[in-house]
Amino acid sequence: DTGVSQDPRHKITKRGQNVTFRCDPISEHNRLYWYRQTLGQGPEFLTYFQNEAQLEKSRLLSDRFSAERPKGSFSTLEIQRTEQGDSAMYLCASSSQGYNEQFFGPGTRLTVL
Amino acid sequence: AQKITQTQPGMFVQEKEAVTLDCTYDTSDQSYGLFWYKQPSSGEMIFLIYQGSYDEQNATEGRYSLNFQKARKSANLVISASQLGDSAMYFCAMREGWGTTGGGADGLTFGKGTHLIIQP
Fold first, then answer.
1. Which of A47, A71, B29, B93 has CB 3.0 to 4.6 Å from B110, enough for a Cys bridge?
2. Interface-testing mutation among B45, B48, B53, B55, with chain A (most A C-beta atoms within 10 A)
3. Does residue A85 sit in helix, strand or coil?
4. Spatial distance between the Cα atoms of A107 and B45, rounded to a whole number of angstroms
C-alpha cells in the first residue's frame, strides 16, 4: 500500500501528558499537511510543509503544538501538556506540486482523559 | 463569516435518484479552488472532484459533477444515479489564492459537511 500512513491510529492519554504522532506521506509527494477534525465538524487546517520547510501555520496551532518534517519525508506532530479540548482526529495529507488533490491518511484519533 | 457553508446537515435519498449537495463559499480572491471530499463511516477522506475558479466548464468525474456558479459563489455537488455505497459525509472545501494552474501551497478550508443516506 503506497498511500499516506499515520501512526498510531488511536492514542489515549491523560491530561498534561505529551503525545507525538507520525505521518508518512506518499513517497513522491513534497507537500504535507496536518488537519484536526472534531466530532461533527469538517477538518481544520493546522500546518503545511513543502519539503522540510514549514510554510504556514494556522492560528489554531497553539504554542503547545509543534510539527516537524526534518528530511522532507515523514512528519511528526507533537502536542505538549495535552488538554481535554485536544481530543480529536488528527489527519495528515500529502500532495505533489502541480496537482490539486490532497491525499489523506486514515488519521490518529486522540482521546485526552 | 464562514468561508464554506453547507446548509444541509442531512439528506435521505432513494437509491438510483440524483442528489445535489449544496455548497456556497466566501472569498475575495480571484484565484481559488473548490473541492469535494467524501468521508465514509470508516473515517478516511476521499477526494471526489475539483473546480478551479478560472475553469470555464463544470468539472465532472464519473458520476460526480460540480455545478459551479461563480456569480452566486456556489459549487454544488451532483451525484447521478446514487448507490447505497454513496452513504457518507460529504465535505465542500476551498483553497484560496490559486486556480487552474494547480499546485496549491496551502491548506483547505472545509465546511461542516452533509450527511447523505441512500435508502434502498
1. B93
2. B45
3. helix
4. 9
